[in-house]
Design brief:
alpha+beta; two-stranded antiparallel sheet; 13 helices
Amino acid sequence: MFDRDRWQEIFEAIGKNKLRTFLSGFTVALGILIFTVLLGLGNGLLNSFLNGFVDDAQNVIFINSGNTSKAYKGFQENRKIQFKNEDFDFVKDNYKGKIEFATPRVYREGQAKYKKESGLYSLRGVNQDHQYLEKTIMMKGRYLNAVDIAERTKNIVIGRLVEKDLFKNENALGKMLDMDGIAYKIVGVFQDSGGDNEERIIYIPFSTVQLLFGNNDLLDQINITYNMAMSAEQAIAFAEQIEKDLKEKFKVDPTDQSAIRTRSFAEGIKETMVILGGIYFIIFIVGIGTLISGVIGIGNIMTFSIKERTKELGIRKALGASPKSIIAMVLQESILITSVAGYVGLLLGIFVLKLIGNNLEKFFILNPKVDTGVIMVATITLILAGLFAGYIPARRAARIKPIIALRDE
């Protein structure tokens, strides 16, 4: 393997066939480049999807209501379906053992003021379980608790950027915040990995929102997390069962997709994996196809190289060179071309992905990259492909009879 004379002979052979060597190596490099870039873009799509759920629990199910699109059992279409506290209790009580956490949501907006600073912020009326569904991280103080919900307190939890906007360098914990003329006490400041918008939210007991904004029991959304012992298929079936039961409760056509709908992380993951599976299949076909072209090219150049060196190989055998040594020489040349070209293709592919970065975020491609494991597998595959491409010409070279080779012109 480390015979200096042999390597010198290999480089001399490559030098005599520069164009064919370049074209064969270029095909392999292009195949790996395309494979790496496409795989990185596929991973970018997956990252974009997962980023959408980064601030939510991975076992969350969102339950939304809307207007009916079909008449059903004497009810007209375009009927508004409105969740109430009793519907939240229905979900929570009906599926005990299958639910870990459950919270209602009530959406409002409020003009918040502190001293001379003010701003319009999103208010979310929730209960104490919401912290676990949203994966909220408390920086200061505490989150809302059961007492806040039961007693309809005016305690609130604000996002990190709300504190930054309104309180500047002051500590907001324990301060009073005016929202639309009502004073609320800040009991906690949180941060959220979902981005700036998630950190400009103010959480308030949903029971307090219902009391202060209309004295009602209306809800905008119901969110739950299912038991993690469920498989993805069981979780999807569970979400469908909740949707079916609520449609029966509200007298909604079972085929009506707009009145009541559930959305689970498991369902999103399954749909995305199907799409990504198709993308990865295309990547595999394109990458393997291009790689095979390169392997064929390397096999051809080895064949041409051996044909041009027939007399030389005959002399080697006449002088006592063994078939194994001739095979080893040809295989080394093949592996060298494949490995160098493949490595260049990998480097170029990684470089292209770094150039892309997050510039394709508007196309739902976030942080496209390939991991080290994939690169190692690709490299090993290349070496094996180089061995395969050079083996047939190498065997042919080893079978050359000295007397016939010396007559070759």
